[in-house]
């Protein structure tokens, strides 16, 4: 079974592959019983949100897991994916600014994403490392 931090990083990479913006992995395990990590990212359109969500769900399937629940997909404004120990929030950018999820968890540590400074065409190499 994949550890929750590794799972959060794999899902963050899946979002990044589909051009997610401002991706953050927030460690909440010592602050809440909801999950171990939040993954928060955004896109500049509802279609972009759905593309990111589809890729994250595909990655979960490849890992032999599936989401417990997915909310908000039809509207594509704020999609929440409950993957047990990792909860994913994929926002349409203006909605993300309005709700400011990161601000609610300001004291929670952020996890450095090993791929965030890389070019998108390098994602296949990283997929080997993470998935």
Write up what this structure looks like.
This protein has 5 helices and 6 strands; from the N terminus they run αββαβββααβα. It is α+β, with helices and mostly antiparallel strands and 131 residues long. It has one domain (4-109): Beta Polymerase, domain 2 (2-Layer Sandwich). Helix 1 (4-17) runs antiparallel to helix 5. Residues 121-131 have low confidence and may be disordered.
Question: Secondary-structure map with pairings?
Answer:
Elements: H1 4-17, E1 21-27, E2 37-43, H2 46-62, E3 69-71, E4 78-83, E5 86-92, H3 93-99, H4 101-104, E6 110-111, H5 123-130
Parallel strand pairs: 2-5
Antiparallel strand pairs: 1-2, 1-6, 3-4, 4-5
Low-confidence stretches: 121-131
Tell me the name of the CATH homologous superfamily.
Answer: Beta Polymerase, domain 2
Strand content: 15-25%
Q: Which quaternary structure do these chains form?
A: single chain
Question: In order across it, which strands form the biggest sheet?
Answer: 3-4-5-2-1-6
Task: Name the helix and strand elements from N-terminus to C-terminus, one letter apiece.
Answer: HEEHEEEHHEH
The amount of helix comes to 25-40%
Number of helices: 5
The residue-averaged pLDDT reads 90
For the record, the CATH class is Alpha Beta
**Main beta sheet:** 6 strands, mixed
CATH architecture: 2-Layer Sandwich
Q: What overall form do the CA principal axes indicate?
A: globular
């Amino acid at each position: 079974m994949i550890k929750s931090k590794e799972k959060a990083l794999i899902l963050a990479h899946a979002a990044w592959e589909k051009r997610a913006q401002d991706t953050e992995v927030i460690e909440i395990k010592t602050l809440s019983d909801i999950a171990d990590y939040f993954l928060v990212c955004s896109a500049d359109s509802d279609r972009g949100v759905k593309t990111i969500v589809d890729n994250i769900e595909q990655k979960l399937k490849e890992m032999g897991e599936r989401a417990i629940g997915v909310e908000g997909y039809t509207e594509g404004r704020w999609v929440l994916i409950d993957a047990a120990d990792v909860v994913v929030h994929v926002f349409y950018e203006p909605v993300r600014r309005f709700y400011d999820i990161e601000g609610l968890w300001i004291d929670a540590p952020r996890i450095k994403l090993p791929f965030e400074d890389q070019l998108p065409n390098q994602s296949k190499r990283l997929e080997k490392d993470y998935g």
